[in-house]
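Readers of this paper often ask what the protein records in our data store actually look like. Nothing more is needed to write down the fold, since each code stands for a local backbone conformation. Below, we set out a record of this kind in full and without editing:
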Amino acid sequence: MICSRISQQTCVNETGLQLDGIETINVQIQATPSEVILGQNSLQMRCSYTTVTGEFVTGANIQAKINGQFKTLATFYTPSVPLNATLSTDGKYLTNRVTLTNPTTLSTGSAIMQFSQIACEDMNEYMCGVSYAGSSGSTAATSGVTNISFKGNPEKPDSEPSYVPSAGIEEGNNVVFTCTGNVGKPQGKFRWVRYRRNSNGDTIQETPYESQNTTAVEMPGTCTFNGTSKLTLKMEQLDNNAVVRCQVIYQDVPHELYQQTNPINVDYSVRNVRVTKSPNISTFTEGAGPITLTCTSDGNPVVTNTGYTWYKESNTNVPLGTGPTYVINSVVVNETYNYICVAQNSFNGRTFNMNNSIHIQIDFTTTTYSTTMTKREVVFTTPKTSNTKTETVFTTPNTSSLKTETVFTTPNTSITKTETVFTTPNTSSSKTETVFTTPNTSSSKTETVFTTPNTSSSKTETFLPYQIHPV
């Protein structure tokens, strides 16, 4: 005989006859908690019932959905039937994992199945049934359906992400990264992050990749999912020394569950060749101190000392030397050139070159002199009388000065003489003077003055005139 859970005054037996006087029973099933974690032992399945006056319960059962049908897992008895609760054939998988407790009353009570250990197969739909009798016969009622769901916490990825190729990575290569591990239940996913770093290991750029798919397979015995995710990156120069991280994203679990690669080595050809000079001035003077040229570059592998070669632009067939620096010790005009630095690195059986140049301008020395030459002359002005005249001529190269003299010719009479003296270095000029010795007569005097820079000379001349006796 079957009765529904809704109260009614009649029930229908197997023959279709109505049975008066039996009211339906209130039957409930409850799982506490409804969401459990694998291994948790606090799950309790309780089948409760309440009868009306004149009815009493004779037995109860808890059922689970197996292969699409509800099957009895355990049978319980009331005090009217002094038997122990037992697992059915379909419930044998619960052996040693559950404790069964019979109801203690006939009219109001509960059949309890207490779990001591949760397994994956316990995630299911459950219901319970109660057999009861009244003045008009026996019947049964069932509860609604309840579900037990599982929450399986994720774990740190199995290992650091693998990547292919794993060595000999060059700029421009596509590298495939793979991450695997427990992403929990319900299924979580993996999130990728690339951290570009400088040579000191400091992060200079962080790039997350949120749209990568995570495929998952439920792991037997764990109720959780094992996920796999892949990320493909095209390697660039900035990816040298980068790390790629795989982290688990799961509900409110913090992002501490991650694994990341070791720093990735990405080879790239030499570039950014720079040449500097010291002292850093536009023009050097002949005879100045040494000029140091320095060459720097970027590249991986880095350019070694022997990877730098120096040339003059006028003769690139003959190297001046190797190393990151070149010193011009002979600072002379004929060393004015464009100096070229060629930087070179090699990887995977190939060699790469890049160069740059710098112009070094060396000019003649320009010197301003401030030296003097002293010339002393004795000039007779009146007969038998003479005086000495001293003059200073400045011999600044390529300049001239005006010299003014007063020459007495006849007694107490004088004339003014002006001359221009050119003092071009290491050359000479002729100077012609007319000196009156006896009154109203004259003679010519020619002198050559050498004006070698930075030297001076003293010249003293005495002119003896004819003597004139008084009458």
